[in-house]
Design a protein that fits this description.
The chain has 240 residues and is mostly helical. The protein is built from 13 helices and no strands. The chain has helices spanning 6-20, 25-33, 35-51, 56-68, 75-87, 92-104, 107-120, 136-141, 143-154, 164-176, 183-195, 200-208, 215-228. The N and C termini lie close together (11 Å). The relative contact order is 0.15. It holds the Pfam family CMD. InterPro entries: AhpD-like, CMD-like. This is Carboxymuconolactone decarboxylase-like domain-containing protein.
Length: 240
Amino acid sequence: MTEILQTDRAAIKAEFVRERGYWRPWTETLLREHPAFLRAYARYAGHPARRGPLSERMVELIYIALDASGSHLFEPGLRTHMTRALDLGVRPAELFDVLHLVAAQGLDGVTQAAALLAEECGLAPDSGHACGDALSALRALDPDYAAAVHEFLALHGPGDGLSAAEKCLLRVALAACFTAHHPEALRQHLREGLRFGLQRAELLQAIQLGAHLAVHGTALGAQVYASLTPPHTAPAATNP
């Protein structure tokens, strides 16, 4: 295997920071132990973030939703992306719209489970609402709870927040992410997004951004490895 020189490592670090916008102790460990992985990861993760049609602002809002999600709760990433979002001029009302959507994510499982329960119990969906209405089964089973859910979902933010299409993109990202993958909710959100006029490439980018959460497991492993091994000094540059 060809040895990667110190000059190559410096270039890999620069590329990683350019593509991902941060540098952490775990990336330093990987730069020392497996620099080729770090370079490949930067290119893979950086592709949708930097080359998709969504604005940098929207990308950061999606990352905030994914890191804050109850299925992930990754504070370091949340701090990184919220800081960047604030630097980009994102307003508090927009951030709290994101966090509202995060709080509502758990309802995807409730509505699907309620639909199964209603079906098994032979309850007909509420005929007064459109076919495919996610709350239809809940209305048949527990109308008061369904009303409370509707009120919670319809709640307006504390100011000028996100547009309906932007909220839809965030719902797509949350439902598509492997940490809480929900195909039925995802299908509903994709259909809604297309009705809003969102482009296929925009929806795809929202889907792609969720894959990068998996590297947090790599980061944890690299940190544990570093804590269990003696401190390393950087290898001296050599000729190939």
